[in-house]
Specification:
Blueprint: H1 4-14, H2 19-24, E1 36-37, E2 67-69, H3 80-88, E3 94-95, E4 101-102, H4 123-132, E5 139-150, E6 153-167, E7 189-199, E8 207-213, E9 227-232, E10 237-240, E11 270-282, E12 310-323, E13 332-338, E14 344-350, E15 356-366, E16 386-395, E17 400-405, H5 417-423
Parallel strand pairs: 2-12
Antiparallel strand pairs: 1-2, 3-4, 5-6, 5-17, 6-7, 7-8, 8-9, 9-10, 11-12, 12-13, 13-14, 14-15, 15-16, 16-17
Helix pairs in contact: 1-3
C-alpha cells in the first residue's frame, strides 16, 4: 500500500484528475448520472453530441434502446509508469520540420493541459502526437469479429480471428529505461502488429504482419513507410502489401487500415489543425460483453449502434487533418480526442467533394472495472487503460457500415521477449504450413 501514495502524487502532477471537475459538475447539465435515455428522450442528448453526428442520429438511436448516463468526467488517467515517464520527460518533445516529432522518448509528448488551440499553430499536431503515443499497455491482444451491414441487413461478408500489437519502443516500464524505452537494443521499429483469420472457411489461414518504424516520426522524405506482409493460403506464399493500400477499403468494406482506432496513419503525412474543445457524450466504459463472450447483443436496427449501453460526458479536443497526398480518398477528417486518455471518441471523414462520407466511433472498456483478461505485469501494478473493444464505421452516403467487436481486448504483454521475437518474425507466417 505504501507505493500507492507516491503514485497518486505523480498522477496529480502530470495528469490532473477529473475528480475536481466532476465535483463541480456532479451531473451533466440536464442529464443525471444513472438516468436512462430512451428514443423519446434523444433530443436531450443533442447539446452533448458532435454536431456532425446529429443529422445522422437514426443510425445510432432507436426504439427500445436503453442509454444509461454514466459518471461525468470520471478519472481514467493512465498507468503510473506512463505518468511517471511523462513527468520525467516533460518539455523534451518538440515539433520538428513538416510536422515531425523530435526529442520524444517515453510517456506523453506534450502535456494536454498546456495545449492552447487558439494561439498555438502546432496545437493540432501536439494532440495527434499525444494520440499516437497514448497509453495502450504493452500493445493489444484480442479476438475479433468483423461484420458488414447494408441498411440493417448483415451480409455474408465477415471475418473472424485474432489480432495482436506489440509496442517495441517508447515503453515506460522501468526495466526498459536502460535502452531508452526500447524492448530490444538498437531497435528501429516502433511497433509490430499481426492478424490471423479463422473464418470464413475460404479465408481461413490468412495472416498479416506489419512493422511501423521509428523514422515515421520524422519528415516524410526521411521516413521509412510501414512494411506489411500477408500470407495467402490459396497461393501458399507471403506477399508484400503496398503502403498505398493503407487508404484502400479493406476487402470491399467501408473501413480502411488507417481508420482503425480513429486514426492509424502517420501524422507528418497530414496537415493538422485544432478546431476547439467540446464536452461530448461517448461510450467509454461499456457494460456490454459481446464477441467473443456473446454474439446476440442488440446493436440496433442498422447493426451499428452502441446506444444500448452506458455513455459518459468527456472533455475532448476537436482536431482536423488534411492529407498532403492529393490521391488520398479523404479531403479531410475531423476527430474528437479525449483530453485525459488521448483516445479518439469520434471521427468524421469527408470525400474529395467535401461531403460527409463516414462516421467512425468507438466503444471502450476501463481495465480496472472487472476486465477479465487485462492483468498487471512487471513495472505496471495496475493497467489503468481505456481500451477500445469495438469500432463502427457508418457510410452515410450508402447506408452501409461495418462493426468490429473485440470485447476481450487487453494490453498485457507476451510472457517473454523470446515469444515477442517469434511473433514479430516474418517467417512465422509460413511456419508449419
Amino acid at each position: 500500500m505504501s507505493r500507492i501514495v507516491p503514485w497518486l502524487v505523480v498522477l496529480g502532477l502530470a495528469f490532473p484528475s477529473a475528480a475536481a471537475r466532476a465535483q463541480d459538475d456532479a451531473t451533466s447539465p440536464g442529464l443525471a448520472e444513472g438516468e436512462i435515455i430512451t428514443k423519446a428522450g434523444v433530443d436531450r442528448l443533442r447539446p452533448y453530441l458532435p454536431p456532425e453526428l446529429w443529422p445522422h442520429r437514426d443510425f445510432l438511436f432507436y426504439e427500445g434502446m436503453q442509454l444509461e448516463i454514466g459518471p461525468p468526467f470520471r478519472d481514467y488517467s493512465p498507468a503510473a509508469a506512463y505518468v511517471a515517464a511523462s513527468q520525467a520527460n516533460r518539455g523534451q518533445a518538440r515539433i520538428g520540420p513538416e510536422g515531425s516529432l523530435e526529442g520524444h522518448t517515453t510517456g506523453q509528448p506534450f502535456p494536454m493541459d498546456e495545449i492552447d488551440c487558439q494561439s498555438d499553430p502546432d496545437a493540432g499536431l501536439k494532440i495527434i502526437w499525444n494520440f499516437d503515443y497514448r497509453w495502450q499497455g504493452a500493445g493489444l491482444m484480442a479476438h475479433a469479429y468483423y461484420s458488414y451491414w447494408d441498411r440493417g441487413e448483415e451480409l455474408p461478408l465477415f471475418y473472424e480471428g485474432w489480432a495482436r500489437q506489440v509496442a517495441l519502443a517508447n515503453r515506460p516500464e522501468p526495466q526498459y529505461a536502460k535502452h531508452g524505452g526500447d524492448l530490444f537494443r538498437n531497435e528501429t521499429r516502433k511497433l509490430a502488429y499481426g492478424v490471423e483469420v479463422l473464418a470464413p472457411f475460404d479465408a481461413k489461414g490468412i495472416s498479416l504482419l506489419s512493422y511501423r518504424y521509428k523514422s515515421s516520426d520524422g519528415p516524410p522524405e526521411q521516413a521509412k513507410n510501414d512494411d506489411t506482409w500477408v500470407y495467402l493460403p490459396t497461393l501458399r506464399r507471403v506477399r508484400r502489401i503496398s503502403t498505398a493500400q493503407r487508404t484502400d477499403a479493406v476487402s470491399g468494406t467501408d473501413f480502411t487500415f488507417d481508420d482503425f482506432s480513429g486514426f492509424f496513419g502517420i501524422p507528418p503525412q497530414y496537415q493538422w489543425n485544432c478546431l476547439g474543445e467540446m464536452d461530448v457524450l461517448a461510450s467509454v466504459n461499456s457494460k456490454v460483453r459481446a464477441y467473443p463472450y456473446a454474439r446476440d447483443h442488440n446493436f440496433g436496427p442498422y447493426g451499428l449502434s452502441f446506444a444500448d449501453d452506458r455513455w459518459e460526458l468527456r472533455n475532448a479536443f476537436k482536431i482536423e487533418f488534411v492529407p498532403k497526398n492529393a490521391d488520398h480518398p479523404y479531403s479531410r477528417k475531423v476527430l474528437y480526442v479525449d483530453k485525459q486518455t488521448a483516445e479518439a471518441l469520434y471521427s468524421f471523414a469527408y470525400d474529395r467533394k467535401g461531403e460527409l462520407w463516414k462516421i467512425i466511433y468507438h466503444n471502450k472498456r476501463w481495465s480496472e472495472d472487472g476486465h477479465e483478461f487485462y492483468e498487471p505485469w512487471e513495472g505496471v501494478e495496475a493497467p489503468r487503460d481505456s481500451v477500445s473493444v469495438a469500432d463502427v464505421v457508418i457510410n452515410v452516403q450508402t447506408g452501409t457500415g461495418n462493426r468490429i467487436e473485440f470485447w476481450d481486448a487487453n494490453g498485457t504483454p507476451l510472457p517473454s521477449t523470446g515469444k515477442v521475437r517469434r511473433f514479430i518474425d516474418v517467417g512465422r507466417l509460413t511456419k508449419g504450413r
